[in-house]
Amino acid sequence: MATYLITGGCGFVGSHLADALLARGDAVVVLDNLSTGKRANLAPEVRVIEGDVADPDAVARAMAGCAGVFHLAGIASVAYCNEHWREGHLTNQTGTVTVFEAAARAGRVPVVYTSSAAVYGDAGTGAVDEARVPRPQTPYGVDKLGSELHGRIAMGVHGLPTVGLRPFNIYGPRQDPSSAYSGVISIFNSRLAQGLPVTVFGDGLQTRDFVFVADVVRFLLAAMARAPEVAGQVFNICTGRTTTLLALIDTLAALHGRQAVVQHAAPRVGDIRESLGDPARARDLLGVTAGVTLEDGLAALLRGM
Ligand code: UD2
């Protein structure tokens, strides 16, 4: 049994990871500023420290005695970070460097952290692999790429093993639908459940590689298990399958047994047109793939599992 720190552990992905760690017999400490996460997402045995990931004292305190750190805290919305440039930078990049520095000082505790597929920017048609030159087109993507660059030099300068993960679009139970900045599946699912119209920004033909949260947890655990061998590297978290927003709406509406009412609004600034990941590198080096199909994942979402 080991103890792991999850930053942002009260949130959507972090709380699923906490469940998986507890289920295999590990202990979990969470650092979360509760800006979007909720204590109620976690089992009672998880120790929660309320604090900010850009606060070095809070991070050092939370890390004491931990065998590894999953750094998931961040502002997940690209659109919010467009509108709150400095706030996004402080959390998404300074916060990551704060975690890296604390981990180095705490005895080179391995860190698995979430970067993002947003580092690629608009990569055009076809699946992007990790060798693609990153061209982020929003502050969010730039801060994630900056975090990766720090992660890559961490071993050489500080002897700190880090592994970066680039999730594509994550969905699943506990993704909060309540804000305009929430993940699109959580918003559409909640609106369809209430019989309300959905708003599509742009023509709805933009594509996304939607990956179910239980698969994401498998990638996180695999990255931690192999951190010594793959230190300094980055991996896509994706399915290798792509879906348009309009097709997504059709699938979701069928699961709800309803006809969707679709309204269109102007596209978002910096919105990526096509997003599809190549899962080969994670499969080959981490031994993990995302096996849950969109239909199965959406059905599980509706069941609340
Ligand atoms: C997602 C992640 C982001 C990053 C990125 C990687 C979320 C919230 N954001 O950004 O953290 O990892 O992927 O590329 O998971 N849309 C609508 N109507 C709505 C809401 C959204 O049409 O009510 C569109 C939106 O304009 C975009 C797509 O749906 O084309 C997905 O939007 P999103 O906010 O779920 O995620 P994205 O791809 O901007």
Automatic annotation (TrEMBL):
The record's section on InterPro entries has: Epimerase_deHydtase, Lipid_A_modif_metabolic_enz, NAD(P)-bd_dom_sf
In this chain the NAD-dependent epimerase/dehydratase domain maps to 5-238
What superkingdom heads the lineage? Bacteria
Q: Where is the signal peptide?
A: none
Q: Which PANTHER family match?
A: BIFUNCTIONAL POLYMYXIN RESISTANCE PROTEIN ARNA, EPIMERASE-RELATED
Protein name per its UniProtKB record: NAD-dependent epimerase/dehydratase family protein
Source organism of this protein record = Paragemmobacter ruber
